[in-house]
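Revision sheet: structure tokens.
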Amino acid sequence: MSGNIQLLAGALARAKRENRAALIGGLPAGFPTVDGGIAAIRAVLDNGADVVEIGLPHTDPVLDGPVIQTAVDIALRGGVRIGHVIRTVREAHQATGKPVLVMSYWNPIVRYGIERFTGELAEAGGAGCILPDLPVQESAPWRRAAAARGLATIFVVAPSSTGERLREITAAGSGFVYAASLMGVTGTRASVDDAAGVLAGRVRAATELPVCVGIGISTAAQAAHVAGFADGVIVESALVKAILDAPDEAAGLAAVAKLTAELADGVRRVPVG
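Predicted:
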């Protein structure tokens, strides 16, 4: 069975036709529980997100700040496994028809088996994978397996990436380019660094792939700001925090739904330049 890279491309193209950035929400699988995580991800998709990324919990999430680390620890303590991640992808996609990505560090995938992982992700209706720590020069086995199954390979670039490195990474990727808005780990911040806009412009000069910006975006106003220069706005820590701060699971779902709706309104405020 082929994955849904074309569904991802269609969602990003549709947002562009509507003269706005796409909203990409993210939550770890298994948080606060497997079933609760599926419900939360559905709430994100049902309240205005165009795409969702599902985090594969890892014991050493080097890109993630304390908010996501806390959620990942809850998921791991709850016994989440890759099978639960695949189930989450399947149920989220089947319920909404929207593109669903997995965001994972490389070690769990290579231990699970590249062919096995890409096959199961495609069968579940997944659209691809964001791989923040997979060096592009070592990515050929993954890219071959992903391309054969209709899955996007999404790499992360940073403000420190050289022009040569940007060209190398973007030439190898598919789906879109994940542009980290700042140097550092994920988390909510009071403002989005100006480096995000500069990086987005540099990436656009290197590739025709859509440029989606994440890390540090937590409010509708910040989403509107980033939507002025990005093809997509990626939000994860703020959604996780909404669940962590809630007194119970029902309140967490309500908070995630409310925040997603606000962010969806934010990406529609400013026409994409």
